[in-house]
UniProtKB/TrEMBL annotation:
Stored InterPro entries: STAS_dom, STAS_dom_sf
UniProt domain STAS: residue ranges: 17-92
Domain of life: Bacteria
Matches recorded under Gene3D superfamilies: STAS domain (3.30.750.24)
GO molecular function: anti-sigma factor antagonist activity
Name of this chain's protein: Anti-sigma B factor antagonist
Organism per entry: Clostridium cavendishii DSM 21758
Alphabetical list of SUPFAM superfamilies matching this protein: SpoIIaa-like
Length: 92
């Protein structure tokens, strides 16, 4: 099991999320399916960023892989995960 660790950008919105999605999709196409996303720098996430995470989570689940999130330290970012109940999905 080879786990890929990636740091989420400070502002995880439209432009950054699209670029991130491309990077992860390329890795998935190469056979990677275990990811750990580090939120230590993230200060903002919008619906696009959340959508990217959910899509990646679903793809990896279908491939018997996993997505883990950690260091969600910013209270506003954590609030978004709580409000959307994605904290339960990702086990934050």
């Amino acid at each position: 099991m080879n786990e890929i660790n990636m740091v989420i950008p400070e502002n995880f919105a439209v432009d950054e999320a699209d670029e991130f999605r491309e990077q992860i999709n390329n890795l998935i196409n190469k056979g990677e399916k275990f990811f750990t996303f580090d939120f230590k720098n993230c200060k903002f996430i919008d619906s696009t960023g959340l959508g990217v995470l959910v899509t990646i989570y679903k793809k990896c689940n279908e491939l018997n892989g996993s997505v883990k999130l950690y260091s969600v330290n910013d209270p506003q970012v954590m609030k978004i995960f709580n409000l959307t109940r994605l904290d339960k999905v990702f086990g934050i």
